[in-house]
Amino acid sequence: MLNQIEIARGVYYVGAVDWNLRDFHGYNTPRGVTYNSYLIVDEKICLIDNVKAPYSEELLERVSQIVDPAKIDYVITNHVEPDHSGSLPKLMERAPQAKVVLTNQGRDEVIKYYGKEYDFMTVKQGDVLDIGRNKLHFVPLPMLHWPDSMATFMEGENILFSNDAFGQHFCTSKRFDDENELPVALYEAAKYYANILMPFGKLVVRALDKVSSLPLSMIAPSHGLIWRSHIKDILAAYKRWGSGENRERVVIVYDTMWGSTEQMARRILDGVASTGVEVRLMRISTTELSDVALAVLEAGGILLGSSAHNSGPLATMAAASSYLQGLKPQNKLGGAFGAFGWNGGAQERLEAGLAASGITAALPSLFLKWTADKAELQQCFEFGQQFGEKVKEANRKD
Ligand code: FEO
Q1: How distant, in Å, are the alpha carbons of 108, 114, 129, 194, 303 from that of 123?
Q2: Which residues pair with 138 in a beta bridge?
Q3: pLDDT tens-place string over residues 289-332
Q4: Are 336 and 252 contacting, i.e. CB atoms less than 8 angstroms apart?
Q5: What is the pLDDT of residues 264-280, one digit of tens each?
Q6: Per DSSP, what are the bridge partners of residue 153?
Q7: Are the C-beta atoms of 43 and 188 separated by less than 8 Å?
Q8: What is residue 357's DSSP assignment?
Q9: For 143, how many CA atoms within 13 A lie in the half-sphere containing its CB?
Q10: If you measure from the C-alpha of residue 223 to the centroid of ligand 1, how many angstroms do you get, rounded to a whole number?
Q11: Residues designated as active site
């Protein structure tokens, strides 16, 4: 016997909770990860998404406790990434009669991943599937965050099965937002958005237009908690993040070889703080990239600092710069700084990295030789001060 959770009339949680996962393809997950799957028992029986392959048997056991898997009519595959489709081959062995419902792109991906031609039913925007008391409306969300991604809205119980959107990497034994601490749920939702959806802000805003007008009683993502009491909060947060709204915040991401760049970073921080702007210092060799992404999400300014090493930045900073280039944060000001001995080389690479990330250089870089003397420390303070003023100006709310 397994704990049975009915989240709405005839809708059951049958997913898996991966309490101890700490690395989700490079994203640090201190609170673990869930793979949410939902079983709808109506005149037709539907499974919404499934779980990562190692949890296939658990999924089948949870389903079997409610209904024989051989009776499943539709396996709705909102997204083919293996955290949501890994158990498909095992599931389909037990439910060979089921139709696999997905977008055209999803169909191609399933065939390539699993080498199987299931009984596919491809859907597009506006398609509706009548399953009895409820109707399923399909809402493709291409590139949020894969080409195949879609959401499914269940008219009747009015649940949006949103897949990755609105998710959080957060394990608990309670499934709803109001059964857990809201600040933690929103923190993890922000971290999830920052690391998975940040590159697609414009598409997020467009997707919100599609879903915000629906009469939502729940948003049931495929990771983390189900939103039922704080739907407005999570929709408002997505609107803010998608449209690139920033705060008067500066994030200084740096690494240092012998302490000179760190000394600069600390003095720059003081300069920024003197303008009243919030400022955070993150040494990348002791900070997870996924936490940097979260800090950057609502920051108006990003400063990258590095010692020179082998005619470039330290490898840790090269990685941070590469991560930022992938995330393409919106509406940010940037700058670069650091210490070098003879050739330098970090400056050009960090400046190029900021430009490739779509970050606007707010002031000339500050690089100095060996280590800062008293006058140069004052220069660092003023650099921070000028940067703080520019961030304040760009993000003034009045
Ligand atoms: Fe949770 Fe894009 O997979």
Answers
A1: 13, 20, 10, 29, 45
A2: 152
A3: 999 999 999 999 999 999 999 999 999 999 999 999 999 999 99
A4: no
A5: 999 999 999 999 999 99
A6: 137, 160
A7: no
A8: T
A9: 9
A10: 8
A11: 25, 79, 81, 83, 145, 164, 192, 223
Nearest CA to ligand 1 atom 1: 164
Locate the ligand 1 atom nearest the alpha carbon of residue 164 and give its number: 1
Which tokens in the block code for residue 16?
């898996």
Q: What is the number of the ligand 1 atom nearest to the C-alpha of 35?
A: 1
Taking the model in full, what pTM does it have? 0.96
Instruction: Calculate how far, in angstroms, residue 262's C-alpha sits from the geometric centre of ligand 1.
Output: 37
The residues, ordered by sequence, that sit 6+ positions from 379 with a Cβ below 8 Å of its Cβ are: 366, 368, 372
Domains annotated for the chain, with CATH where assigned, are 5-242 (3.60.15.10), 247-397 (3.40.50.360)
Residue identifier of the C-alpha nearest atom 3 of ligand 1: 81
CA of 248 to the centre of ligand 1 (A): 31
DSSP H helices in the chain = 56-64, 82-85, 88-94, 104-114, 182-192, 201-212, 231-242, 260-273, 289-297, 315-327, 346-356, 374-394
Residue 164 Cα to ligand 1 middle (Å) = 5
- Does residue 267's CB lie within 6 angstroms of at least one atom of ligand 1? no
112 in helix, strand or coil? helix
Q: Which of 300, 302, 329 is nearest to 394 (CA)?
A: 300
Centre of ligand 1 to C-alpha 241, Å, is 19
Q: Is the CB of 109 under 6 A from ligand 1?
A: no
Whether 83 is in the pocket of ligand 1, judged by its Cβ within 6 Å, is: yes
Reduced to 3 states (helix: H, G, I; strand: E, B; else coil), residue 364 is: coil
CA distance 160 to 76: 13
| CA–CA gap between residue 378 and residue 244 (Å, rounded) | 33
Closest protein CA for atom 2 of ligand 1: 81
* Tens of pLDDT, residues 164-176: 999 999 999 999 9
From the CB of 31, is ligand 1 less than 6 Å away?
A: no
